[in-house]
Automatic annotation (TrEMBL):
The chain crosses the membrane at residues 14-31, 73-93, 105-126, 132-151, 172-189, 228-251. InterPro entries: MetI-like (IPR000515), MetI-like_sf (IPR035906). It holds the Pfam family BPD_transp_1. GO terms for biological process: alkanesulfonate transmembrane transport; cellular response to sulfur starvation. It comes from Dethiosulfovibrio salsuginis. GO terms for cellular component: plasma membrane. It is found in: Cell membrane. This is Sulfonate transport system permease protein. Keywords: Cell membrane, Membrane, Transmembrane, Transmembrane helix, Transport. Belongs to the binding-protein-dependent transport system permease family.
Length: 263
């Protein structure tokens, strides 16, 4: 059998296995609702949840809230990415550079981003900057720490071999150090995105007039568990899509790293 066909079949089987858990959960949800095992006011039925989801899509409200949350998460995450990766690389390459900032960064890392949200609102108001700031704080440290660790754990033999072949420090960094650190950077990006997403929803619950967190809070105020369930499902799906997007965007770098290891 062709190797590509084998890989395709293997991936399809893995995808089918991944559907087993959600299918069991969905069936249990449907069965519990129809057998009246729990109060529908506490846990709405799948049918009412889907109907609420369709209604919000048709009137455009869900799209607007998704757009608001997505714009905030992408803005905060992008700022965290362009600051955390260079800082992590420098910290990984230079212990002296890391020593200057390690204590301050460690202190900030252990402060919950949502605990700093009132301070950000005091500085920037309740507008977009405070929410983007929360996302930045939540996303920065996973990216920074994983980047730094990825650079520090690069195989020294590869670096020495590159230098012995006459490569400059810059070329060694570009062609050896950075590709070897890519898996750590990608891991930091994925973890940072999930942390940023959670912090964003928390900020929208507190002070916002749009976004999925605001939609969830409004549904709770008006006692609409079907909208709450639909919003939670939307959050989960959107989180998966954003995580998969990072995977697809960085796939070429991961493939390059794999080829480098094989060599």
């Amino acid at each position: 059998m062709d190797i590509h066909l084998k890989k395709a079949l293997s991936k399809s089987k893995g995808g089918l296995r991944g559907l087993i858990g959600p299918s069991i959960l969905l069936f249990s949800w449907w069965l519990g609702s129809h057998k009246a095992i729990w109060n529908p006011f506490i846990i709405p039925s799948p049918e009412s949840t889907v109907q609420a989801l369709i209604s919000m899509i048709e009137d455009g409200s869900l799209i607007d809230h998704v757009a608001s949350s997505t714009g905030r998460i992408l803005s905060g995450f992008a700022i965290a990415l362009v600051t955390a990766v260079p800082t992590g690389v420098l910290s990984g390459l230079s212990p002296g550079f890391s020593a200057y900032f390690s204590s301050s960064l460690s202190f900030l890392n252990h402060l919950p981003p949502l605990a700093l949200f009132p301070v950000l609102m005091l500085w920037f108001g309740i507008g977009e900057p405070s929410k983007i700031g929360v996302i930045f704080l939540a996303s920065f440290f996973p990216i920074y720490l994983n980047t730094m660790e990825g650079v520090r754990t690069v195989n020294k033999s590869l670096v020495e071999a590159s230098r012995s072949c006459g490569a400059s420090t810059w070329r060694t960094f570009i062609h050896v150090t950075l590709p070897c650190a890519v898996p750590g950077i990608i891991t930091g990006m994925r973890v940072g995105l999930s942390y940023g997403w959670r912090s964003l929803v928390g900020a929208e619950l507190v002070a916002s007039s749009s976004g999925l967190g605001f939609l969830l809070h409004r549904a709770e105020v008006f006692s609409r568990p079907d909208i709450m369930a639909a919003t939670l499902i939307t959050m989960g799906i959107l989180g998966i899509l954003l995580d998969r997007a990072i995977g697809y965007l960085t796939m070429s770098d991961s493939d390059y790293m794999e080829r480098l290891r094989r060599r």
